[in-house]
Amino acid sequence: RDKLVPINKRWNIETLLDALRDYPKASNSERITFEYVMLKDVNDSDEDARRLVKLISGIPAKINLIPFNEWPGAPYQRSDWSRIESFADIIYKAGYASPIRTPRGEDIMAACGQLKSATERARKTKAQIAAETGTG
């Protein structure tokens, strides 16, 4: 977790989960939604699913399972669809809604988390363009 979510070093998962358990509006009608990105061979095993269920025990929650959106040179891969379904089934059987998000926009590198980074790489200031073309 420290590698995937560096802020964990300052705000560790136990502190965050304790705050969620104490959240006064938490109830079945006001569930907390967790977004869980599925990374092949990193956090997608049956044991990972069981650990997740144990971790959120006592928190009325829904877990959105998000297939990782790959890009050229990405350090991770998307979990296989069958693996994601098995993971979702474990969570569901533990009493938590676990919908699997349908990836969209990946064919044009515009899936969640990709579009912003692609446009930032492509965006240049007028000064950068002028410097590159020798017109400034």
Quick structural summary:
The protein has helices spanning 13-22, 46-55, 81-93, 115-122, 126-133, and strands at residues 32-38, 61-67. The protein is built from 5 helices and 2 strands.
What distinguishing features does this structure have?
about 140 residues; 2 strands; 2 domains; pyruvate-formate lyase- activating enzyme; 5 helices
Looking at the overall shape, the CATH architecture of the largest domain is Alpha-Beta Horseshoe
In quaternary terms, these chains amount to single chain
Domain count, please report it.
2
CATH top level of the largest domain?
A: Alpha Beta
What's the average pLDDT?
Answer: 80
Report the β-strand fraction as a percent range.
5-15%
Radius of gyration (Å): 19 Å
CATH superfamily descriptor of the largest domain: pyruvate-formate lyase- activating enzyme
Which runs of at least 5 residues are low in confidence (pLDDT < 50)?
114-121
Number-wise, the strands total: 2
Strand order in space, largest sheet: 1-2
Count of alpha/pi helices: 5
